[in-house]
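User: Just a sanity check before I run the rest of the batch. Below are the C-alpha cells for the first item. I only need the designed sequence back.
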C-alpha cells in the first residue's frame, strides 16, 4: 500500500490576494493639557503597501482657562480637523485605570468631548487599549514613548520623529486601527464563501 501524498493546488497570488480599499484614519490621543491628533492613510497603489502621514498636530490647553472653556476648545478644534480631513474612521485610546481619580475624571471629560466631536460628524469610532496600540506599532505592549515615536516615524517613512509626543501617540492609534482593519479583512472569508 502506497502512502497518500497530499498535494497542494498551485498557488495563484492573483486569485488569493485580498485588495483592501484605501483607508484614512483620524487618531486622537486625549490629554488634560495636550490632546494630540494624527491622520494616517493606507496606500496600496504602489508595489509595496504603505502608510502615509497626512497630518499631525496638538491642541494645547491653557491652565488659566476654566474646564468648560478647555473642553470647548478641544471640541471646536477636533471638529475642525475632522471636517478638514474627512476620515473614514476615528480611533481613540480607551480609558486606562489611574491611581489618581481626579486625573482620571479630567481625562474622561476630554475623551467624552473627543467622542462627541466624532459622533457629531457621523464618524465610526474605534477604541483601543494602550497595550494593543503599542503592540501593533512597536511589537511590545510595554514600549516607552520614545520607542513608539521611533516606530511611528519608521512606519510612516518620516524624516524626523513626530513631535510632540502626543501627536506621535495619535498617529500610533491611527496605525493600530489600520493594522486591525487589515487583519480583520484577511481573517474574514471571501464574499460568497461560507465558513
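Assistant: Here's the designed sequence for the first item:
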Amino acid at each position: 500500500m502506497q502512502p497518500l501524498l497530499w498535494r497542494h493546488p498551485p498557488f495563484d497570488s492573483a486569485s488569493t490576494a485580498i485588495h483592501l480599499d484605501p483607508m484614512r484614519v483620524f487618531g486622537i490621543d486625549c490629554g488634560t493639557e495636550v490632546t494630540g491628533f494624527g491622520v494616517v492613510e493606507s496606500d496600496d497603489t504602489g508595489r509595496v503597501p504603505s502608510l502615509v502621514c497626512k497630518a499631525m498636530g496638538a491642541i494645547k490647553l491653557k491652565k488659566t482657562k476654566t474646564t468648560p472653556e478647555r473642553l470647548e476648545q478641544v471640541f471646536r478644534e477636533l471638529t475642525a480637523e475632522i471636517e478638514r480631513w474627512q476620515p473614514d474612521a476615528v480611533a481613540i485610546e480607551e480609558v486606562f485605570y489611574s491611581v489618581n481619580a481626579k486625573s482620571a475624571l479630567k481625562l474622561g471629560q476630554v475623551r467624552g468631548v473627543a467622542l462627541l466631536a466624532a459622533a457629531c460628524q457621523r464618524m465610526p469610532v474605534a477604541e483601543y487599549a494602550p497595550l494593543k496600540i503599542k503592540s501593533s506599532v512597536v511589537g511590545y505592549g510595554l514600549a516607552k514613548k520614545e520607542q513608539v515615536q521611533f516606530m511611528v516615524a519608521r512606519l510612516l517613512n518620516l524624516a524626523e520623529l513626530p513631535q510632540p509626543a502626543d501627536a506621535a501617540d495619535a498617529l500610533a492609534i491611527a496605525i493600530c486601527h489600520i493594522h486591525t482593519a487589515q487583519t480583520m479583512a484577511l481573517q474574514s472569508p471571501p464574499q460568497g464563501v461560507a465558513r
